[in-house]
């Protein structure tokens, strides 16, 4: 077999696993791999538990002639600080999810990439060999968000209407509680003086007062979410981790594949939707002027999906999960806002530049979170 020697040395690809994977892709046992290359997908910096994601692609000589193929290799690194399944970002969780077969037949029409193998490396890392599913990269509008929110409702509604919940010990049972704890530990520190100047520059007084009042209730709301009906949750469900299958005729959404199951958990109804909407705002995937409108639409679309699955429960329960999950993101977003705004205050006072658009956007995001907190207060009887 021939291969790319440099990529093999640098990335340590297991050629026997590569051969088995390619045979599965091409349907040819004993076919000869003609050549292959390895390219990073996205940043090489990785994150807390991911060393990188790479596309391995090439062609093979088969009885039917040359066949091109590609596979994705995701490299997961061990992390002692995240070596407990109770941690929202437990480093080994995604490898366990794929290795368990849990994702092979999800309900509600949600699909995932095939896993061709998990590889334990000598340095303790785990490599996932995954199906390469192309994303068209097109921006999303109302039709795409509606489809994704409704599919989430169908998927989670199945577990609320009889589909057995997975019971693996490595699935997180209190994902948001762990996330809040870690956010408080690592939120940016800002001196009172810097915070005061930022408040004056951007007129943040009322926003911070509302947040301070809400922050006194966050732990109680987190506990209340733990008492909601449970469902299987992704917890990183948003455009960057979703690939749409579109109709060839009119490009309307037909199917949905969810990537990156690192945060898989058993969570409350509506909780995943709140994170979906929160991340959609944070990533700039909907206009700030439409935050309020999209917030209502996201919930309506999700509720439609729950109804499609046969769930006929009290709709205040998913609404509470949705509102609380998104509003609680303020425990990270508000300190980040003050930090950014105080840094911007120094730049403006020094005459270096005008306030950044990112600060203005973050203000609108936290305002929306506080509006959701206000709506949430009307459901306090469910706590």
Automatic annotation (TrEMBL):
Keywords: Transferase. GO terms for molecular function: transferase activity. The keyword Transferase applies. InterPro entries: Kinase-like_dom_sf. It comes from the Bacteria. The keyword Transferase applies. This is Aminoglycoside phosphotransferase. It comes from Paenibacillus mucilaginosus (strain KNP414).
């Amino acid at each position: 077999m021939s291969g790319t020697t440099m990529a093999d040395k640098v990335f340590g690809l297991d050629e026997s696993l590569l051969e088995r994977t390619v045979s599965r892709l091409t349907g040819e046992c004993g076919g000869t791999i003609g050549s292959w290359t390895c390219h990073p997908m996205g940043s090489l910096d990785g994150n807390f538990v991911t060393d990188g994601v790479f596309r391995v692609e090439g062609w093979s000589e088969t009885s039917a002639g040359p066949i091109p193929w590609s596979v994705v290799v995701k490299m997961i690194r061990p992390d002692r600080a995240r070596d407990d399944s109770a941690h929202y970002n437990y480093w080994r969780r995604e490898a366990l999810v794929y290795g368990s077969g849990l994702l092979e037949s999800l309900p509600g029409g949600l699909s995932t990439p095939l896993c061709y193998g998990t590889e334990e490396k000598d340095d303790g890392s785990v490599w996932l060999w995954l199906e390469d599913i192309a994303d068209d990269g097109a921006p999303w509008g109302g039709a795409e968000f509606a489809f994704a929110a409704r599919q989430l409702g169908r998927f989670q509604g199945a577990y609320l209407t009889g589909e057995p919940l997975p019971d693996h010990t490595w699935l997180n049972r209190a994902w948001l509680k762990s996330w809040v704890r870690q956010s408080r530990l690592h939120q940016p520190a800002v001196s009172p003086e810097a915070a005061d100047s930022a408040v004056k520059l951007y007129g943040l007084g009322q926003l911070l007062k509302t947040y301070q009042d809400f922050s006194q209730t966050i732990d109680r709301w987190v506990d209340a979410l733990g008492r909601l009906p449970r469902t299987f949750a992704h917890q990183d469900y948003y455009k960057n981790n979703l690939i749409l299958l579109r109709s060839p005729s009119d490009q309307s959404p037909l199917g949905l594949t969810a990537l990156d199951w690192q945060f898989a958990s058993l969570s409350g109804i509506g909780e995943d939707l709140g994170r979906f909407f929160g991340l959609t705002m944070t990533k700039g995937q909907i206009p700030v002027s439409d935050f309020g409108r999209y917030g209502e639409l996201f919930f309506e679309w999700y509720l439609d999906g729950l109804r499609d699955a046969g769930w006929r429960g009290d709709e205040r329960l998913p609404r509470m999960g949705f509102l609380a999950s998104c509003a609680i993101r303020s425990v990270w977003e508000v300190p980040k806002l003050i930090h950014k705004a105080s840094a911007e205050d120094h730049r403006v006072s020094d005459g270096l530049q005008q306030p950044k658009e990112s600060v203005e956007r973050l203000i609108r995001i936290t305002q929306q979170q506080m509006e959701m907190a206000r709506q949430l207060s009307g459901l306090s009887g469910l706590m």
